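Input for the complex:
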Amino acid sequence: MSTYPTIKVLVKYNSGDKGCKSGTFFLNIGSAAIIKIKLLIKEEDLVKGINRKKEIYPELYVYEKSAFRMYTIDHVNDENIDIDDDRFLASVSNVEKDVIKTLRNADGTTSSHFDKRKVRIAPRSTLQFKIGPSFTPVVPNHKILDDYAQIQEIKLEPRIDRGFDFIDNDWIGYKRNYFTVVTSFDTPGSDHIDFMKKAYYLDSGIEIKYFATKLAAKCLEDDKLISLVQHTAKRDKGPQFAPPIHVIAPANLPKHQIIRDASNVRNESKMKKFDSYFFLHKEDVGPDCEERNVLANYPSDPIKKVARYERIQFASSIALKKTSQQNRRFSLLVVLGCFVKGRHHTISQTSPYHELDHYDEQKDMTFIPIVMEKTPPLIIRGRSPSNYCQQIKVMHTKKSDYETEPSEDPTTNPHIDKKERKRQGRKDKQPNTKLIHSLSHDSLSQIPTLLTSGLPSTFEISPTSGNMRIKNIQLLSSSTETSFPRGAQSESLSVAYLSNSATPIQESIFKKRRLNISKPVLESNLEEPTDDITENIFSTISFDERTPLKENNDQMSSTSVFLLKHVTYCVSEPPPAVAIPRTMLPNKMEISYCLNDYSSSFIDYQPPSTSNRRQPASRRLLTASGNPSDLLNPADWSDGPKMVDEQRNSAFVQEGSGDIETQKRNEQINREVGELVTRKSLSDQLRENSKKKRQQFQKQTREKNSFTRVSNEDLDHINKIKSDEIEKLREFSQWAESEERKRLKKQRLLQLSTESDGLSSGTSTNSDLIPTEIRIPKEVKSSKMKNTLGVIRKKRTKGVSKPTERGR
DNA sequence: TCCGACACAAAAAA
DNA sequence: ATTTTTTGTGTCGG
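Predicted:
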């Protein structure tokens, strides 16, 4: 029997807030940990609305290589909110492979179909390219004949290369996202070049000037045409237009891969490489044409061979639903037609080609459809947050991540490896990267083990009198040794509560002004400081809910989101003498953790008070929650100019004069640099250069920061809160260290007494310090549990149920 | 509630 | 390697 860290979190809500929005909690341990989460709310604390939910959808997230991988499990009824371990396990393993389904295309590329409600993939990921639904021919509108009245076969070859995923037997597109349709046409029985050397006529006898394609969309319910729009790569900055009629010559449709590769080519030499796929030059055809030939009629010299409809979207105005429940379905139509001279009859209303013809006034020519193909029904999802997944983390899907190990069997689990992020860019101090990789890779197969050996995890929420307390979070799975990528020396814990939708973090943290917290002022050429594993790192983001509580009983509209990232502490060494937490943002909510304390609540915790003197600066991580002082601390650079705290402080607080001071300092340093360079060795010069760069950076960041225009009062306020928080956190981390030491001691004693197998409990350098085999006592399911209700929010499947609440 | 507009961010392209 | 471009989607306000 071992004991494991417990994290306690207290969230103080503003008065007026009475409930919580359902959401998902994550408890994340190391790089490959599994967390099972229960959200328990005492019955007497339930506020109207919270317990309305009859269904809860537990989710399981595995954190691997800096990314979450989600596993859904079948929903459970809240009649029995206690998620039975076995059932949980079983359902997890059942659906694990459903997140992304990958099929192999004819050209060796893959089409990975995934539900954007469940997983978010980077915008430029190659996984966004995929072959969509096939087209099927519609009865032809015309036949075409050559000079000898022979019928010339014509076959469209359309393909969707982006924008539609096959999910649960439906083809799903997104209103906000681009899709791509490409098409060429083939001339069975004729060589494409030869085809161009002859003349053609419609079965009505009209001479065909040239061939062209059109893209259209129809709503299947009312059979009405739907507008499409096309953007340029500049999107909002460029023009919008209806997908044009493309004049094309017959050709083979380039493979999907070619369309991918050619999708955003600007480089001239690269464009040349693709030229032959997409263009026919009249001179390529040769001279031996018949007297009258269609080639001569083509209006442009490079003649398109492929109609590429890229960056297409359904017009924003289209209604996507018939009723609140029922989706309208759409079909895309690819039409091959021809231009003929003059204005011609419109097509009868009963024809599927109705309104697909088009008279071009400028050219005095009419586009007359000849053949067309259509997609099966398509469902277009709108902008509702319910059509997007919860804001977790982007799955990293660089090509190299999955190219190296192509999945052999396309029907099996797709290979969706996620890569550790930006590893290359920083010095990796962590000792056993190799181990991490191999082990993380295995982590999926370890799920059952981890789960069965895991700890139950409980969040208890008591939203009484404006306070909500989350306490006693036990780790479901502390981990096997594999879960601790930082090696034996440390363990990383983090907890995140993510709201299910729109979350006004920025507004909320800084009430009056918008400060950008998600993107710290950070020059891209600044090297990110390395993460020192012996350092205590602690960062929180939290905010007030700004939604005023409505009188409406049915609506629990308050939202809370907090992210508690990376409590890293050393478990084998004595705590560092100095433990500087990362900078805090000003908090209205107060969040604290207690590690390894089952008995006392947050309120009970009174850390030993220490002196108020500031700690010497240490390296800090630049994070999303970074703030100016993170960047302006020159001590962060080992050979940079040292600056005492008072100076740093004043530079931060006194915005204006700080700039001047910095400039002065920079000047001085630059002078020094200048002197030095004249008489220093190359290495010294290099060093000085880097110093110079840092100075430049400093200046730039300062300039940028000046644009945040924070008033002095605000700065004072922020600083005060910050220093308070830092002090508190420092105390806390010291306290936590001592607690952890106690725990380890206890554990060691236990191990000794219970005669552990294979655990070399004696060696302090061993990874045993972090329990590698975790048997956690089952959660005490007592009367307390009966009075509780688990509310773990799961995204709706198939858009059947509407979101019951929205953040405002 | 829906939508235009702007914003952020991550991978491709250069 | 770094910078620019592209595009999925978060967000705000009308």
